[in-house]
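Please, structure for the following, as tokens.
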Amino acid sequence: MKLSICIPVYNGADTIGQLVDKLQEIFSGRDFEVVMTNDGSRDNSSEVCQSIVKKYGNVRFVDLRRNYGEHNAVMCCLNYCTGDYAAIIDDDLQNPPEEILKLVEEAEKGYDVVYAKYHKKKHSLFRNLGSKINDILATWLIGKPKNLYLCSFKLINRALINEIIKYKGPFPYIDGLILRATNSYSSVFVEHKSREAGKSNYTLGKLIHLCLSMFVNFSIKPMRFMMGLGAFVIMLSIAMAVYFIIDKILHPEIESGWTSIVALILFFGGLQTVFLGLIGEYIGKNYLDQNGTPQFTVKNTYGIPVNEEQSK
């Protein structure tokens, strides 16, 4: 069995070298490779990764032209990995690399994907809250089983990798691609450490982008929700109209107020704006997809045979 360890790198110059060194120690004597993708880092991650390739013969490195996002970088890794299994791990050392062995042991029972789960996560309160929101939305939008925690640290087999990389759209969501291709999954508890260097790259903007990827690319439930909300508002409006008519007949001396009218106008105007924005998001993403927007563009590759690179 050959194992590929896929690492999306973003501003990880301080930690990526330590991570690869530990991987070489842990998996010494095994058939494995390390595949790194530099996702447009603003530090000297590219130079550090190039030096790692020179140091170890089983390391591959793909340098992207700009930042595309974590899921696009993972897709790049999966396109360039050659193992029977691929372990996806972040570059910040919060997931101890030796825990990959637990994922491999579980996957050998016949599962297509094995997710890591934690007794206690050492992330910030904001990131833990974002993960919780992502978990709730994934359960509703893409049918994620409630007992499954979606984690960026996971292991997938070659058959599932081949299904995932068939997706060529510009806005991949790895867990969505996994769950629509298989229901053979498992999870194991692993250790989670505090961040050793640098700061988290997890931001509100990235959380919103991830949610929109689920909304638009992997589910039509938001459209159905808006349609149901529109039907509810129509029925509520009819009920209110009937109430005001009856109230006016019974109490003709009461003057009609403009406050309720303004409130209703603002409410319906806001509802229509949200609905139109949602439609625009669907149309815009579809346009970018049909327009051939790439998942990623490669600047340079290192440690990858020329014949294999030409076949990409």
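Strands lie at 3-9, 32-38, 59-64, 85-88, 113-118, 154-157, 185-190, 298-302. The two ends are 23 Å apart (CA to CA).
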